Amino acid sequence: MISKQWTISELRERTGYSQAKFAKDILHVSPKTLWLYEQDSSNLPDDLIKKYMYLFNIAYEDIFFGPKYEKIVLVRDEIQKRIEMLTNIQLLEQSS
């Protein structure tokens, strides 16, 4: 099973809120600040982490902290490994 850690943008998108509305009304930060955090959540302040954990009833370890592209690469690599394993299994089944 592919491990699921949520980016903060994925969490926000689940609410249906726009980035601007979520930033202003929920987090009380500027939309630009939220945009920056959604691109790279490595330096997300503790008070915002706690808000995300409370709002989404999510554990700290289930939130992805880091540049957004790193998560994309991690998921892509994990899927590629599974494709290779499936291909090998199919080749073994064909040869038996």
Question: What's the short story on this structure?
Answer:
With 96 residues, this protein is an all-alpha fold. It has helices spanning 8-15, 19-27, 31-39, 46-56, 68-95.
Can you describe this structure?
This protein has 96 residues and is an all-alpha fold. α2 crosses α3. The longest helix has 28 residues. The protein is elongated and about 60 Å long.
Structural class: mainly alpha
Q: Mean pLDDT score, rounded? A: 88
What portion of residues belong to β-strands?
Answer: under 5%
- Count of individual helical segments: 5
- What's the helical proportion of residues? 55-70%
Order of helices and strands: HHHHH
Residue stretches low in confidence (pLDDT < 50, at least 5 long) are: none
The rounded Rg comes to 18 Å
Taking the alpha carbons of the first and last residues, their distance comes to 27 Å
Largest sheet: none
Principal-axes geometry comes out as elongated
The number of E-state strands comes to 0
Features:
68% helix, 5 helices, single chain, 96 residues, mainly alpha
SSE arrangement:
Elements: H1 8-15, H2 19-27, H3 31-39, H4 46-56, H5 68-95
Helix pairs in contact: 2-3
